[in-house]
Amino acid sequence: AAKAAGRNTSRFFDPVLEESANTRVRLQQELGVALAKEQFEVMYQPQVNVRTGQVSGFEALVRWQHAERGLISPGDFIPVAEETGQIVPLGTWVLRQSCMEATRWPAHLKVAVNLSAVQFRSTSVVDLVEQALADSGLPASRLELEITESALIDDHDGAQATLMALRERGVRVALDDFGTGYSSLAYLRRFSMDKLKIDGMFVRHLATDMDAQAVVTAIISLAKALRLTTTAECVETAEQLELLRALGCDDIQGYLMARPLHAGQVPEFLGRENLMSVMHHGAR
Ligand code: C2E
Ligand code: MG
Ligand code: MG
Ligand code: MG
């Protein structure tokens, strides 16, 4: 106990930790204000079918429009929002915003929304999704939810019940960042889902690292055996695209096609004639 107290005391007076605690508190307060004022933007990154070159949908990616610091990436505030529980109202806002935006797109296009593990466990996700679909008028079949393995860890039965309820309503479920979490293979057997997203970590080294290539090959054949589709993220080069095509990956997403777009840029992107040529020569 004395040891623990000592540790706590020194932690309390550690200037570096104290500063980062202050930074977190400030971030938390600013996030609260930003939530009240809805100072966020959802951007949309296209997902493209490898065989046809057609856009199949967009992933919704949130940004914080900070008054002084400009656009802040989710990696810099989602962890804090998860710690404080602010992810729940934020995630609700992103879901509703994304569903509304997607109703303006051609009717064959889906929107994929990231759902934090904290949100997946802490609120009635099914009610939330039903509400967002009802209020926007978006058909359930056009909504995909991206969850990570961490959403499935603690409460196996509850998580499976939630996934089944979502899929019964026609909403798709994708397992995000596949291959970077724990117990991936056990989860695949136990949980209902539709898609595996191959993490950028593997895609990045696909053309240069035989081990990365072996992992991607294994993920795609595993997915096929389990009747799941695959989307590779962070595709940046034509070489990566060709390898993914050869391996039988279904969809790709990455800077090769487009960076995340402002909602207003989506129609122009969809109007581009030859996405196949973009896929071979790059968007830049
Ligand atoms: P994620 O869901 O795995 O999203 C993919 C990330 O890779 C995005 O980063 C995207 O901009 C980035 N990316 C896409 N193509 C490329 C590429 O070719 N090269 C590289 N280097 N990066 C690429 P972003 O937007 O910064 O989001 C980071 C993470 O934050 C997301 O990873 C997701 O886990 C989380 N996130 C984003 N939006 C939301 C949200 O609305 N709710 C929740 N809960 N999490 C979100
Ligand atoms: Mg995602
Ligand atoms: Mg991902
Ligand atoms: Mg990722």
From TrEMBL:
<protein>
    <submittedName>
        <fullName>EAL domain-containing protein</fullName>
    </submittedName>
</protein>
<feature type="domain" description="EAL">
    <location>
        <begin position="24"/>
        <end position="274"/>
    </location>
</feature>
